[in-house]
Design a protein that fits this description.
Layout (H helix, E strand, L loop, with lengths): L9 E5 L4 H12 L3 E6 L2 H13 L4 E5 L5 H15 L4 E4 L21 H29 L2 E6 L12 H24 L4 E8 L8 H4 L9 H8 L10 H11 L10 E4 L10
Parallel strand pairs: 1-2, 1-4, 2-3, 4-5, 5-6, 6-7
Helix pairs in contact: 1-8, 3-4, 4-5
Length: 271
């Protein structure tokens, strides 16, 4: 058995134009995967697709709203027309919003309804609906992999992000549910897992960690580094080896788990 062989696998990545998932897409492509980039940003899709083209990585980019089943179904048809199958779904679409985040100028009681719904819909329902649409293709084939993106805040809710933490906790719970469902109703060759990144700098959380005016760490940013044994934020490349492993035959008995990638943050008790 080639433990890390993913040559020829068709990998659908939602949120594929984002900072983390675009790097994952490139890495999977370098290992021989064929990539379908799904994202709401046409410009972002174009940029990632052009980069993949330069690397001679076969790909397709489809503008998709993961909160809309019709949009996902249309994307599925385009992907199947090009590749004829789906081997892997990575549910990477997600993020937080400032108006769903508490702080000095916004209490829990003032969090904006629209922003709260958007965070829940994007993180949880986007994962749920994409798993329905592409999971059905995987179920019909009787083999494949689904990887969800949870968060360390799903294990223990972090201050200031009640909505994001709750949405990611739902993703973790759903990951375990879907793993059991697929095994009991379809095939033991279908695996469902999640990764839980710790603190990575993205466009969605930068406002919490870096002071816009000074470009220095905020008090929250400093606290995170102090409580991360490796003393740094994660970078996209830190996710790659775990994702490749979860896709490949080397993890064929890994099922229904949420794997932390956090530089030791969850291991540190603060003293």
């Amino acid at each position: 058995m080639k433990y890390f062989d993913i040559e020829g696998k068709v990998v659908v990545i939602t949120g594929g134009a984002g900072i983390l998932c675009s790097e994952i897409a490139k890495a999977i492509g370098e290992f021989g995967g064929r990539i379908a980039i799904l994202d709401i940003s046409e410009g972002g899709i174009r940029e990632v697709s052009e980069d993949l083209d330069k690397r001679n990585i076969e790909n397709i980019g489809v503008k998709t709203d993961v909160e809309n089943r019709k949009s996902l179904l249309e994307a599925k048809e385009k992907i199947l027309k090009k590749f004829g199958k789906v081997d892997v779904l990575i549910n990477g679409a997600g993020g937080n919003k400032a108006l769903a985040t508490t702080g000095p100028n916004l209490s829990f009681f003032e969090l904006q309804e629209k922003a709260v719904r958007e965070v829940i819909d994007l993180n949880f329902l986007g994962t749920f609906f994409a798993s329905q649409v592409f999971g059905e293709v995987i179920a019909e084939r009787g083999e494949g992999v689904i990887i969800n993106i949870s968060s360390m805040s799903a294990f223990s809710p972090l201050t200031r992000v009640p909505v994001y933490s709750a949405a990611k906790a739902a993703v973790s719970n759903f990951t375990k549910w879907l793993a059991v469902y697929m095994s009991q109703n379809y095939s033991d060759k279908i695996r469902v897992n999640a990764i839980a990144p710790g603190f990575f700098l993205t466009e969605q959380n930068k406002f919490l960690l870096i002071d816009e005016k000074t470009s220095k760490l905020t008090e929250r940013g400093k606290a995170i580094i102090e409580h991360t044994p490796m003393k740094r934020f994660g970078i996209p490349e830190d996710l790659i080896s775990t994702v490749i492993w979860l896709i490949s035959p080397g993890s064929k008995f890994i099922h229904g788990v949420v794997i932390p990638i956090d530089g030791g943050f969850s291991a540190f008790g603060g003293v």
